Protein 1
Amino acid sequence: AALERLRAGDRAQGALLAVACLAALAAPHLAGFRPRMDLVHYNLARIAEAGGRPEQAALHDREALRLDPSSFLPHLTLGSRAARGGDLDRALAHLRRAAALEPRSPEVWSNLGGVYLARGDLERARRALERALALDPASLPAVHNLALLAARAGDLARARALNRRALALDPRHPAARRLAARLGER
């Protein structure tokens, strides 16, 4: 399969498959080594996603989950993808599971907060986003979503302060720039 991918010009995926095959072949000769095929599929999903193949990415993420149901990463990416596609129920299910599996991930809490915000559950959104910030004070998505949350709640002073913080983290962040304009800044 790796050679077919390489011949077809899909170098990144072919190379990753080749490495996975070599690791599987070498495994019996390495004491205590067990190939993590779930991670191979997770990484193939990232390659497919970067290559603009979201359906193939979702297949690899689901296979990674099948191989290791305790992995939070495929839940995180499946939840994020579902949220981008507007399927907030599916996104919430995956992100809640990711949070249960890895409660120390600011990315999980930030994504979960974004989904709660999109669903209009402002209190849960606030708690999730503040948890993301407690884990990573430089979490741009959490800061930006908290700014959106404050604006939505009518706390414009807090929204402006948080949005300035988001722009300090990334002055070119398009959504933060749009929010600044909406809030009468810049």
Protein 2
Amino acid sequence: MIQKYLPQGETLPDIPAPNKTISFPAVTLTETAALSESFTKRVKSDKILIMEDLGQDFGYIHYETTLKECVKGTLQIKDVRDYAVVLLNGEQIGSFDRRHRQSKIDIDVETVPAKLEILVENVGRVNYGPDILNNHKGITEKVTINDQEINGWIISPLPLYKAKVGSYKFSGLNFFNKLTDRHEGILPVLHLI
């Protein structure tokens, strides 16, 4: 296609050979630490705060609250950016992905008090177009259950690229294996290679 628009007498070079592929050896995970090891700043807030409210630009943000009433219905996160995992008492009950416009999951709180956690990942920033000025990260509006707003949050910014990983309390895989049996490997943990 391009060749037909080149000046007369010019030709395109030959197509280069494909790049060589390489393989990497298997990686063994030797130790794990609970994600909570990275909680260095814990902010109490009645309302949801976004990453920028906490001076954070990239990474993750962890939201936690205690539910005091049994409830069954729909949990809605209005405008999560960009990806979120929802845990109830340490068990994953769902996830949200902004790319798929997901905003609702079923929730069934059978015993109280119940710990609701939402771990949100910022997967990148918009750097062009009309959304450049509307580019906040985290939960940017609110969390509701059956249209009732949930308040009383403990929020932990997790800019992991600044983390002092050497100070975390890592333990052998026995810790992880116990969690795997109970939580099917979903509970957020950090791995040391």
Protein 3
Amino acid sequence: MKEPLRLLSGSRYTLGALLLLGIMAAIIWRIPQRTGASGGAAGQLAAAARTPTIEAPTPTAVTPSDPLLAPAARGTWRPIFTDSFNGSALDTAHWSACFWWSENAPNGCQGSSANGELEWYLPENVSVHGGSLDLVARRDHITTESGAYNYTSGVITTTGKFAFQYGYVEARIRVTPGAGVWPAVWMLPQDHAPIAEIDIAEILGNRPQVLNTALHFIAGGVHQSVGGVYWGANFGAGYHIVAVDWEPNSITWYEDGKLVYRVTQYAEIPHKPMYLLLDSAVGGYWSGNPTSATPFPNHFYVDWVQVWSHAPAPTPTPTTPIIQNRR
């Protein structure tokens, strides 16, 4: 198979520009945080400009992992969470179908208005069938206590049910391409502290062959983010594995077992328990809005999710960064 082209560029370049920039290993870029008042355009404007120190990690080919096989990252691992979605309904011992602030709300919950998202999340847009989780976005009209919405979608989170500090997370996912849809696998702090977020995978529906990764944090009282863009597998054409190895001194992202991005700034890495989220947002300042050609219903399929922990657990030790990637 032809080696995928690593693109470390902004999200609004033309195809010609992307090809010219294909030899670059990384570049500074910013995307909106998916939740919280500091996300979206305001978060982008508030992020401080920094001079990048860039060194691209070399892709390392390994055998992509199957459920309950060893993670791509090195180390001694033990599984601490797995859901293969083999039943006929969401396992509510693991997941909730709304955000924590409206976990038991019968009428669903709002997406991130700070990002300009257009969806209202409904539990009925979450289903398990055929051995996969299905988060479906629909072009619906719904009136809620927060206003009227023209789209509904699905979200699941493990908040209050499962959280962990450091480990290896992976999910096997597939998306339905289409402008204005924004499926993601991500993590937030269990204590609900603002602006701490690991985006394991964000896929824009109009670019299903591009994996976006990001880390959001506070530095100097300002919301900042670092991240990478990797041009590789086509998530609209089949299932692929996304993963992150969250260590005390580094965070490393993988696609199908291949290392694609790494952060090693200790101060930027979360050092508290975090929980998992999977959702399919509709619209937003970064993704753009759906068009008449966007297919609805629009499905975000997840074959399985699993989390591993080191045995024994690692101890945080601040070190001098080896690789410093910045947007």
Protein 4
Amino acid sequence: MSQPPSPSDPSPIDRRALVVGVILLVVGAAAALAQFDLVPLARAMSLWPLVVVVLGLLLVAGARDSERRRGGAVVVITGLWLLIPVNGIGGFGWETAWPLPLIAMGLLFVAWPKPGEDRGGGLVLLAVGTWCLVTTRHMWHLDWGTSWPLLLVLIGAALVLQAILQAMSALLGRRS
């Protein structure tokens, strides 16, 4: 399957075996629950996005640097997003759940920027995702035709916040 870890490797775990093992555990447990009529087969199969979530968590746990951990977090977000419309969580279907990963990725990029990356892109992604969610869910009776001013306000607010954060960072950088 894979090479055993070398003595100089700080992580003595065989990651490939761990990933394959977790996938087999999740799929096998779902199949066993369905086989013994503990969970209807359709319901057990609707939990397949949890495999993606588990893979992302394994990537986060096994990452050796922050950029790979962030990549694992993207996989977790993708799995959670898939889980929501597949199961109708929160009344979301495919037609209304698509803005959720935009919001989650925006939050991720704001909270966990790459080295040297400002948070502006994450703020804009968060603003656009929020506008798309408000519009697709028809919150406050808004639709695509009536909500475009809200998009301008949200992007403007994101850009102002980005400028403020950059100025604060520059000021704090000069003082240290």
